[in-house]
């Protein structure tokens, strides 16, 4: 609901409300007096996470210049994986003390930083256009572009697109369907290719590979560093290569890495050199999967929908992402139990190959194109032409 709410109330207010929920949820978790209160507080934090994934990528995309929009939106994903790494470090730091309340309370810090910074940041100019506040939209464009002529040209391009009602019916109409398939499909494949399964269960995988529980936990920190590096790699090339090209180049290597991981477990837990093959497969997968399709999740979603339904479209992208994240998290260990470790990661390798085919068929290249050019391609029926 955060995406549609941001269409009504504004991107900035949506971010402020989300950060407030983060802060309240963190404090409530830290001071929870019962398991039920703790669960309720964690659910509140989950709502905040879902909200920011709908609002922040759109806010950045609508402010960023087309030539740098990719890397600027991917900064949001970098913040996510940086948070995973930070939480791993905090868990190590506080794990021995049993001070879980402080662990939860520290979540207030990023929320407070976000809240403190928002008064100094502009509203999205495209939101102001949506609300017919054209003078304010022009003023923001002039400030962020540094040129009245450039601001006027961009505002003219925004206004040139047809004004539509912004209904849910429009979102699910045949005209918008290619964008919905692209956005929700990338979000789905980002999860069912095994990204979070390997992050969540990396210590278990490596313990099975014979590295020992202590080494496997240390490897969780290494995984955190790896996914940050992978995201930085993707961020550095996404505006030069393009979103589609990045995924098409990296996903085959991710699939091969999973084949290595799968093969190392054939016949049981790996021993000898196979242990290092398993580790290489795991870390190679993290680099090439997270450095491509995870980099593209929020970026593609924020780019492909028309202004009138961008919030609604992004809410569907977030729904796809978090729904399949939940499904994969709940089923991975069962999958391993049924198919064996080799079979499970062999299946994930095949799904990475399927993701490559999906991107090749359904995801357009948006590199260097304005949001209005992407919207025009939908209106003219040439969205997915390559």
UniProtKB/TrEMBL annotation:
NCBIfam families: SP. Keywords: Membrane, Transmembrane, Transmembrane helix, Transport. Belongs to the major facilitator superfamily. Sugar transporter (TC 2.A.1.1) family. This is Sugar porter family MFS transporter. Pfam families: Sugar_tr. InterPro entries: MFS_dom (IPR020846), MFS_sugar_transport-like (IPR005828), MFS_trans_sf (IPR036259), Myo-inositol_Transporter (IPR050814), Sugar/inositol_transpt (IPR003663), Sugar_transporter_CS (IPR005829). Coiled coil: none annotated. It is a multi-pass membrane protein. The chain crosses the membrane at residues 12-33, 39-61, 73-94, 100-121, 179-202, 214-238, 250-267, 287-309, 316-336, 342-360. It comes from the Bacteria. Residues 1-367 form the Major facilitator superfamily (MFS) profile domain. One of its GO terms (cellular component) is membrane. SUPFAM superfamilies: MFS general substrate transporter (SSF103473). The keyword Protein biosynthesis does not apply. One of its GO terms (molecular function) is transmembrane transporter activity. It is found in: Membrane.
